[in-house]
Structure of Ankyrin repeats (3 copies):
Amino acid sequence: MLKAGFDPHIPGAEDSTPLDRACFHGFHEIVEILLDRDPDPPLEFKNAFGGTPLSCCIWGSIHSWMKTDLKSDHKRCAELLISAGSHFEEAWIPTVNPEMDAILKAHLTQ
């Protein structure tokens, strides 16, 4: 879709962007493509629920219902988002997901 010229910033259902949805389901390969091909990814854009791609990733690591052949890796998605400049607050910890807690804690000290 990116090659065809679709704008990845245009929100769809629930004001979610493609980055938001890919993060929610842990589709790290899609997240990587979206971040690599977008000079200004919507890292802080909030969907209808007030979630950013990173907070959706954390929520999805606990609540995602997607069952596909795509391997989900919420940990990798979170690392990609934080490396790209996503912000988070210390108050988000604990998340109920020990992997996410470890990633967030590691980036608090940097």
Observations:
- The chain has a mean pLDDT of 88.
- The chain is about 45% helix and 0% strand.
